[in-house]
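Office hours follow-up: a student asked to see two folded examples consecutively, so here they are.
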Amino acid sequence: MKAIAYHAPGDFRFESVPDAKLLADTDALVRVTRTAICGSDLHLWHGFPVPDVGFAVGHEFVGVVEDVGSSVRGLRRGDRVLASCTTGCGLCASCRGGLWSGCSVMTAGGAQNVFGFSSALPGGQAEAVRVPFADANLFAIPASLDDEHALFLTDILPTGYMGAEWAEVGPGDTVVVFGCGPVGTFAQRAAQLRGAARVIAVDLDEGRLARARARGCEAVNPGTTDLQAHVLERTGGRGADAVIEAVGRPELVQRAFELARPGGRVAAIGVVLAPFELNYMALFLKNLTFRTGLVNPQRHIPKLLPAIESGRLDPTEIITHRLPLAQGVRGYQVFDTHAEDVLKVVLQP
């Protein structure tokens, strides 16, 4: 089958890879109908260390069930499904506690349980994917939704909502969101859904700031505006009730602590790859709550599907580029360089 395969940083290729197939009786085989390039995929593009090469990348995908193992109970051939980017067995203590990303079975021996980061769990930028523990990690797509409306439930929409939930955004809050990329966009939307009175969207990209303005946010470019002064002016000198870091930059995590009011809440949902010093006293002296971690889409999909079905949330607003899978490498190049006013690239096998 054809896929976008990893060979080295910056060296992804559209080529033939081994066909996906069932390996266990709890597996399902999914024919991919839509997949997308995520900001986390760019970590591989930039040099995130992986154990091998030649595997299909990508962890955001939807498709149709082609085959199921004998122990799969909730799915059958022909079902339209979306896959959680993080995989769990559904039965261990972590999964039963709602932390599928910490599944003791899928992460045994230090294994990666996110699609598309090794040949042990090849990704969805391919014609087909094997999904382990299918009953725990696949969700039926309602007939009322097309593939693109369901696609981002696999990762970035739950991630953005998780940020708003962890920051305890509620009615009347002033919320600062660092980043107007796909995850930042959904964090902004989630804050609005949860009743925030003011969402301050922060980015250096004027095109992305314009989009944030159009979705009802206050857009601030910290390169041209004193961000702290702006937040203090908007909050009567108190600071933001909640701050969400959706970029993955250590300095922005620290900045979030500065912008939050005493007793405020900070959530970091961007992926920070390098170790950095955490200013503990900034948290301690202001009595801040700080949360971070890996998303568990299985927890959020049931909440977010009704919002999409009802029309309160339209995830497709972030799509700027639709390309055939064969042009996926060009999609990476465009996404990496912010060319062509890109926000989100969707690929079709």
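And the second, which I mentioned at the end of office hours:
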Amino acid sequence: MTDHFKIVIPARYDSSRFPGKPLADIHGKTMIQRVYESAVESGASEVVIATDSSLIAMAAEEFGATVCMTLAEHASGTDRLCEVVDTFEWADDTVVVNLQGDEPLMPPAIVKQVAVNLIKNDTAGCATLYTGLSHEDAGNPNIVKVVTDEKDFAMYFSRSVIPYIRDSEDAAVAELVYKRHIGIYAYKVDMLKAFRTMPPCELEQIEKLEQLRLMWHGIKIHVAQASSIPGHGVDTPEDLERVRAATAPDF
């Protein structure tokens, strides 16, 4: 069994909360370069930065990255991923990891883990990861929760508290069952092609969680505990300062 996989890093310039964030400096390198270097360390056979911005493209080419210019009007990073798959004509059985361009502290081991998990699970069309979650954080709607079955396939993702512990408020019990979803995915190319034909479902639109579209249409999502804890992602300028503070100047 081969562990070959590819990585696509979607990177938009026009973020509503933080315009230009892929080019933000983190100790002398842009954030997109930090993400790219982490992707390369994962052992992927190919890493592509997908962007609709000429500024990001030029910066990426300067540090030697392969760039795919994509349309500006994609609704999601997954749609941008589909365009890359078409452009490069990757085979249907290729495993592709979608690594967001605002995750400079995503450990390379996690990136490889999610790809290998999908490779090893023939019945899954997608794979993702989770970490533990405290009782205090479980009620935060900005933190996505997941519940899984005995074979490590997702049963549901939600912004609400799932599962609901009816008879106990014991924090120790809660931390055994709560799973915090990490937003990194591995897909098979044939599943990505099918994704484009799937209309959004009501659950996806209500929760604002794209992965629910896959489950609605019967796609199995493999979910495993991450082998290490990822660092903070960057959604806002304040997040960027946290990342800078958490990393050494020679990072």
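Two things to take away from it. The chain has nine helices and eleven strands. The longest strand covers residues 179-188.
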